[in-house]
């Protein structure tokens, strides 16, 4: 694979891009288990999550608030590079030595790019399975856009493949030779949807009602994993499962025809479209996570945490709707995970 040389700064992505079309769509949340697991399978990234993340302590808040700046690198327009620098700064202190004696740092260019590569693949898989599919030309366009998007972080471009074809080789090699099933990955496999504070029912009842949905999320993840990763994870997948997933994806695609943008789009994305269309000023304040997603008070002085500001009631309501229904707000189960797991 040819490494990409450093290039001058590029413009941020805009509303004419395919990345804008897909990344802020609520359907990406259906791949929450997939992206959480495959990110953590990268040894350095998994080690950082194990030793520095507080996902187990406050899962809903941790995931919900992280999505806002991540979306911002795509949707913040002229402020996207500033948002990218903010995210980069969150990772400066995430470093150490893992259980195998391997040193890691979240700002290692290969590690940082791997996380970005999974977001790019998140878009491709969401579009392929739940939004009607992509042409080869569109895949090439999305690849070029993911490079443009990555420049907003101000990171080394050394790990970035030169072409879509080289990226496919990069992805296959990572899945086959480098990814592993570690503790952080197993935590993602064993997840449950936390009960929102405003739902007036006992937590055990909530868990029983949503158990089938949790199983469906794991099943979708199994279907989207590369075969080598399914084998590593001990997941089962049959031709019949593939047919069912394709049928389910088509039903989701049809159902979302009637879903309004206010629900379909992440609040950061919706605001960006409104700025681009002139409905709100171009310099309007960026939409931030609801204040209830703030990190615990004893962690708020730490550089790795994004601290959202207080929101208006309208913004808070919109954010709450998206956060509640997005499948990315998943947390690991409380019981210990087993080493091998089933797609069911």
From TrEMBL:
It comes from the Bacteria. GO terms for molecular function: oxidoreductase activity. This is ER-bound oxygenase mpaB/mpaB'/Rubber oxygenase catalytic domain-containing protein. InterPro entries: MPAB/Lcp_cat_dom. It comes from Mycobacterium dioxanotrophicus. Residues 20-252 form the ER-bound oxygenase mpaB/mpaB'/Rubber oxygenase catalytic domain.
């Amino acid at each position: 694979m040819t490494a990409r040389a450093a290039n001058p700064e590029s413009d941020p992505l805009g509303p004419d891009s395919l990345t804008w079309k897909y990344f802020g769509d609520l359907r990406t949340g259906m791949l929450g288990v997939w992206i959480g697991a495959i990110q953590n399978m990268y040894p350095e990234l998994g080690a950082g999550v194990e030793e520095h993340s507080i996902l187990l302590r406050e899962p809903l808040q941790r995931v919900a608030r992280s999505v806002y700046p991540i979306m911002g690198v795509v949707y913040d327009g002229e402020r996207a590079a500033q948002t990218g620098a903010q995210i980069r700064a969150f990772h400066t202190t995430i470093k150490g030595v893992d259980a195998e004696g391997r040193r890691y740092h979240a700002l290692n260019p290969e590690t940082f790019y791997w996380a970005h590569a999974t977001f790019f693949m998140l878009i491709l898989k969401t579009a392929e399975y739940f939004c009607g599919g992509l042409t080869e030309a569109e895949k090439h366009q999305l690849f070029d856009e993911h490079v443009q998007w990555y420049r907003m972080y101000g990171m080394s471009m050394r790990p970035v493949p030169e072409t879509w074809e080289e990226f496919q080789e990069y992805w296959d090699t990572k899945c086959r030779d480098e990814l592993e099933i570690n503790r952080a990955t197993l935590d993602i496999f064993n997840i449950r949807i936390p009960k929102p504070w405003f739902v007036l029912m006992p937590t055990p009842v909530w868990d029983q009602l949503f158990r089938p949905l949790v199983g469906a999320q794991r099943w979708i993840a199994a279907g989207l994993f590369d075969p080598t990763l399914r084998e590593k994870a001990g997941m089962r997948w049959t031709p019949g499962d593939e047919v069912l997933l394709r049928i389910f994806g088509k039903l989701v695609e049809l159902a979302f025809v009637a879903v309004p943008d206010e629900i379909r789009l992440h609040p950061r994305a919706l605001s960006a479209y409104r700025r681009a269309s002139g409905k709100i000023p171009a310099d309007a304040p960026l939409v931030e996570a609801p204040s209830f997603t703030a990190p615990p008070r004893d962690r708020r002085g730490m550089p790795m945490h994004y601290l959202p500001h207080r929101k208006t009631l309208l913004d808070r309501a919109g954010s709450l709707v998206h956060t509640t229904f997005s499948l990315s707000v998943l947390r690991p189960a409380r019981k210990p995970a087993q080493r091998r797991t089933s797609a069911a």
